[in-house]
């Protein structure tokens, strides 16, 4: 039975910090836990967005590729979509969006997801260039990225909100990915302006955290030596 109250997460953002970028789960496994989600491929191979059960990778060339079940990832989220539309938003920047998504509260102590479908007068995204072994740190790998900008684009922005308490496991606050309706543009969002869009929210009461216990590098790494919070905040 599909439980729409569960947010499934494979890996943590913390494991990316020291460069543990090995793919430790497959897209096929991830899709067993949801039809909607985000993530990145092995070696930070592009930015992933899953909508309506279809997984897309926006690579460093800006292409939106449909992924097969054997695509591997070090980190990803997924859930079964059951959104509730809360209204429309117009002429909105990221701060406006966050205020609407948080319903006027300064923060939230629960995980939730937000979908914005509509027209964006401006969208700035990025996709990291895939790295190969030996993997560098997240900070070093993220420097090699492509930046994309587009005006007046129709599409879907998928966002996950994580409480501050979980920073390191995920990104505290909002983590947004975008895919244009024509599948010719997308990525991890860096900035945007919403002309007009429909806002829908889905709240979770459970975080199902799956860890790569069969990966020797992960199991043997001492995370106390990593400045996790700072690196994640700068990279994301």
Automatic annotation (TrEMBL):
Enzyme class per UniProt: lyase
Matching SUPFAM superfamilies: AF0104/ALDC/Ptd012-like
Annotated protein name in UniProt: Alpha-acetolactate decarboxylase
The enzyme's E.C. designation: 4.1.1.5
InterPro entries documented for this protein: Acetolactate_a_deCO2ase
One Gene Ontology MF term: acetolactate decarboxylase activity
UniProtKB keywords: Acetoin biosynthesis, Decarboxylase, Lyase
A single BP term in Gene Ontology: acetoin biosynthetic process
Organism: Liquorilactobacillus hordei DSM 19519
Pathway assigned to this chain's UniProt record: Polyol metabolism; (R,R)-butane-2,3-diol biosynthesis; (R,R)-butane-2,3-diol from pyruvate: step 2/3
């Amino acid at each position: 039975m599909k439980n729409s109250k569960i947010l499934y997460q494979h890996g943590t953002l913390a494991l990316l910090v020291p460069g543990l970028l090995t793919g430790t789960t497959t897209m096929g496994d991830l899709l067993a836990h949801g039809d909607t989600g985000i993530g990145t491929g092995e070696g930070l191979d592009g930015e992933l967005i899953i909508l309506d059960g279809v997984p897309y990778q926006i690579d460093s060339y800006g292409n939106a590729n449909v992924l097969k079940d054997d695509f591997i990832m070090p980190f990803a989220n997924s859930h079964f979509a059951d959104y509730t539309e809360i209204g429309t938003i117009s002429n909105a920047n990221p701060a406006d969006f966050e205020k609407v998504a948080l319903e006027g509260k300064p923060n939230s102590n629960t995980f939730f997801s937000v979908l914005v479908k509509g027209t964006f007068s401006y969208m700035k995204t990025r996709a990291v260039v895939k790295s190969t072994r030996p993997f560098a740190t997240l900070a070093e790998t993220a420097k090699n990225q492509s930046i994309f900008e587009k005006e007046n684009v129709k599409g879907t922005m998928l966002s996950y909100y994580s409480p501050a308490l979980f920073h390191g496991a995920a990104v505290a606050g909002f983590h947004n990915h975008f895919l244009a309706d024509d599948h010719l543009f997308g990525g991890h969002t860096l900035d945007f302006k919403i002309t007009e869009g429909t806002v829908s929210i889905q709240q979770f009461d459970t975080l199902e955290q799956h860890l790569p216990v069969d990966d020797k590098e992960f199991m043997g790494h001492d995370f106390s030596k990593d400045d996790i919070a700072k690196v994640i905040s700068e990279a994301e």
